[in-house]
Amino acid sequence: MAGPCGNGTEEFAEDMADPFELDGFDSLSSAEAGAETARNAAEGGEAPLSSRLFGKAEAHGAPSAAASDGPAAAATRAAYLEGLNPQQREAVLTTEGPVLVLAGAGTGKTRVLTTRLAHILATQKAWPGQILAVTFTNKAAREMKARIRALIGDIVEGMAWLGTFHSIGVRFLQRHAELAGLRSGFSILDTDDQVRLLKQVLAAENIDEKRFPARQIAALIDAWKNRGLTPDTVPAGEAAAFANGRGARVYAAYQARLRALNAVDFGDLLLLPVAMLKATPDLLAEYRRRFRYILVDEYQDTNTAQYLLLRLLAGENGNICCVGDDDQSIYGWRGAVVENILRFPKDFPQAKVIRLELNYRSTGHILAAANGLIAHNRGRLGKTLHSVAGMGEKVWLRGHTDDEAEARAIADDIEALLRAGHSPREIAILVRASFQMRRFEERFVEIGLPYHVVGGPRFYERQEVRDALAYLKVIHTPDHDLAFERIINVPRRGIGAASVKKMHALARLRGLSLYRAAALMMDSDELPARTRRPLKDLMTAFARWRAQAAELPPAALAEVVLEESGYVDMWKAEKTPQAEGRLENLKELVRSMEAFDTLSGFLEHVALVMDADQAAAGEKVVLMTMHAAKGLEFDTVFLPGWEEGLFPHQRALDEAGEAGLEEERRLAYVALTRARRRAIISCVQMRRVHTMWQPAQPSRFIDELPAAHVAILDDALPLAPVTEPEVADTSVDNASAGAGQRTGRRTAADPVSGRTARAPFRQMERRHDHGLCEGQRVFHQKFGYGTIAEVDGEKLTIDFEKAGRKRIMAAFVEAV
DNA sequence: GATCCATTTGTTTTT
DNA sequence: CAAATGGATC
Question: What's the pTM?
Answer without folding.
Answer: 0.76
